[in-house]
Every structure is written in C-alpha cells, then in structure tokens.
Amino acid sequence: MGFLRKIFKPVSKVLDKIIPNEIKPALPYLAAFAPMLAPGIMGSSVLSRAAMGGGLNIFGQLAQEGNEGDINMLSAGLGALSGAMSAPGTEATTAPTDKFVTGPDFSSALNPADAPQITTRLPGFGTPRVVSPGVPSASEFFQGFSDAAQGQTGIMASGKRFLGDTLAKGSEMYAAGIADPFSKAGLKAALLPGATATGDLMFAQAKRDQDEYDRMMEDEAAEEGASDASRAFAIRQSMEAYGFSEQEILDAISAAGYAYGGRVGLEFGGIPAALENIEDDEMKDTAQFVSAMDDMDIPIMDIVEDFEIQFKRKPNSLEELKQYYKEKYDYKGPGDVRIKETIEESFREKAAEGGLMNLGGKEMDMRGGGFIPIGKKEKADDVPARLSKNEFVMTADAVRAAGGGSVNKGAKRMYETMNKLEAQV
Question: What is the pTM of this model?
C-alpha cells in the first residue's frame, strides 16, 4: 500500500487544487452510478466496465479533501464489480453473402429437354457471414464462468459455480434496473453503488478525523517535551547562576523528574512531591520557583526578557530575578502556583460580571512593553494596564499567529522583534 500511496499522492494533490470543495462529496456517487448515468463512456465488455468502474471509484476517493494518496482497495474492488455487472455486451456482427442457383436455360433451346444448365447469382440471399462474434453481456459472461465448472467436483468447482450463478443473477438485476431506473428493479440496482459511494465519504471523513487527531497528539507531545526541556533548562540556568556544580545540577534535574525529558513519574506522586524529594533547601527553593513559574504559563525566559527590557541588563542572580518577579507579579513563594488563579480567586465576582479586573488599586506595568498573562479571557478588555501615547498593542490572535498557534511562542517572538526595533532608535 505504501507503493500505491507514493503513486497516488501527487494525483490527489492536483485534484485537491483543481476540483472545487463543493462538488467533491458528489464525486463518489457520480462514479458509482456512471454505468447508469453515462453508459457510453464505460464500454460494453465486462473487462472494460470493470476497469472504468474501479478507475472512477479511485478518482472519487483521491479527489476528497485531505486525501494524501490513501485508497480504500475494498471500495475500489466493489466499484470494479459494479461496473463489470452492468456490461450490456454486443451482438455478433454479420455480413450478407450471395446465393448461387443452378438450373436449365429454356430461353436458348427450342426443346426443353435440350435446355443447357446455367448458374444464376442472387446477391444478398446467401447465409450471413459472421464478421465479429460479439461480446457477451455480464450475465452471459458470469453464467459461462459457472457453466465451465459444471461436471467438476471439489470445493473449487462448487465455489466457481456459486460465484458465477450469483454474479449472473446480480447482472440481470443490474440490467433490469438500468432499463427501468425509476422502478423497484432500479432501486435494487442502486443499492450496491449507493452503499459504496456512502462508504467512500465515510472513509474520507474518518481519515481526516484520524489525521487531525494524530496532529493534535503530535502537537501535545511536542509541547510536553518542550515544557519539560524548558524546565530542565531553567533549573540549569538558575543553578549555574548560583554556582552549583554540574553534578548538583544533574541531581536536581533528575530529582525533579526531567533527567530524560519525560514527565514526572508516578512513584514521585507528581511534580510537587518530586520537588519535595530534593534534600538541599536552596536547591529545592530554586526548583520550586522554576516549576511554579512554568505552571503559571509565564516562561522563565520571558521574565528574564522583561527584566532586561526594564533595566537594560541581565539579572545578576536568581535571587534578583525572583525579587523582580515578586514585585511585578505579586509572587508569594512556591505555594503561589498560578498568578492568574490567585487574582481571579480574590476578585471572582468582579471578573465574572465583566469590566476591568480589580487588582487592589494596582495595574499591569506595561510601560516597557510585554506579554499579558492574566485576565478572564481573550478580548475581554478586563486587565488595567499602563499605556502611553504612540504605543501599539497587539491582539491575542496576532500573538497566537506569530507563535504558530502558541501564545507563549508568539510573545517570545514579539519580544525579540520589539528589542530589535528599539535597538534601532
């Protein structure tokens, strides 16, 4: 199947571009009912109709939105069978021949007994000559397949007779339905192609759903891996700033559950319990600080960038960064797991009713620019912030688009853009 997928994938890409999405769902039905709707393009023999039926079925599958060369071979086989069973066949082609008659010529003799014998040619009165034997209809073809096994014994012979007789009867049903489509016979003839076309659409939708699910799982796995890697990297940066040895850093990362990039194991009881296993108090405080920052959806590098924007330098130590974080975001220590939840818990009723969030007389200090991590929801306009003339604020959709769907990545890219532009002033 992988070989066929490589062949059909470029075809599906072309069809996806040239065929409007509005008519794609109709194509499997048009392909299935082609023997009834357009018998002229199908040919007359069983083989030609089987090839056309299977080919049109594959065409209908490849044209579906999101198809990447995937073919349901069972459906293609049913399409070929439907086409084969509709073959009308052709009559034998003959040509007229002359007839020659021998008898006496009475016009040249006075005595009838003396009349000479002559041969007279009668054009077109002879036995017709077969020019082409014709093509058997589907019913004749499959009945012949059954008749060929007559007199034979064994399972194979019985199977051939059963298959031939069944397909011959099905072909007769098709012929009756094509001759009178708006009848009970026509309804019977439409069952197989209708079911095949419906199955093609269900297969295409299931494939799209599966692809979307796979993409979501890949994105989730990538985000989880990136989150773990970021935590481990943040712990390393913070502990290096404190002067810890490499072994101490590795021990702290391992104790936090990020040594191999995986999630914290159940034997630790989750992230909080894993952090409690760190014996060194200073190391534990560092790990808890970094872990809490990650849970608050504010990456540590964003806090560092905020610091650099405001003070035009890097923080001298983790303690200085923690103090800045505490003053700006009212961080109260490792127990303060999510800033957003803390603020919303304090002023839940106010935020639920809409309007500006009550931050106790405070407001977000955005004079240096930056990302807004708090608030009830996007576009709620509920976060008071300090803004100045000639400043420009991006919407949440723009931030998400800049990050390819991630607001954190988008915020980081916008920080980078802002820093580059400010450096040019």
Answer: 0.47
